[in-house]
Amino acid sequence: MSYQSDLYEWTKEQADALRRRAPNSLDWDNLAEEIESLGTSQRSEIRSRLKVLLVHLLKWRHQPELRCGSWRGSIREARDQIEDLLEDNPSLRAYPAECLTKAYARARLRALDETGLLCVPETCPWTIEDVLAGDFWL
């Protein structure tokens, strides 16, 4: 089975070839590409969840009259998801700080679209430590 025609079947065949230690059965180039994409997907997932968290924090900060338990729960859940990803991928521990500025810029635009607020700061008002801290509520 080829990589292009049936990815699922290809992955099963490649896993089997690896377990059998059969190097001649391996699709080396596509296998390397897929392994690299696994790492990229973890980074993307962290960045995506960070953006969601930042949107929720912006709403929490700038719409105090609308605060409710579900918002608090959403903030906690986003933090938990990021922490789980970082526990599973310790080499990405520094990544949230690296992507904070870009993630905040996108989260800010989303918060503006969703709320119509005009007073959202252009630069992130928090450190990454504050953003990820379970006891930080602005």
Automatic annotation (TrEMBL):
Name assigned to this protein: Uncharacterized protein DUF29
UniProt-listed Gene3D superfamilies: Uncharcterised protein PF01724
InterPro entries, per the entry: DUF29
Pfam families: DUF29 (PF01724)
Domain of life: Bacteria
Organism this protein belongs to: Roseiarcus fermentans
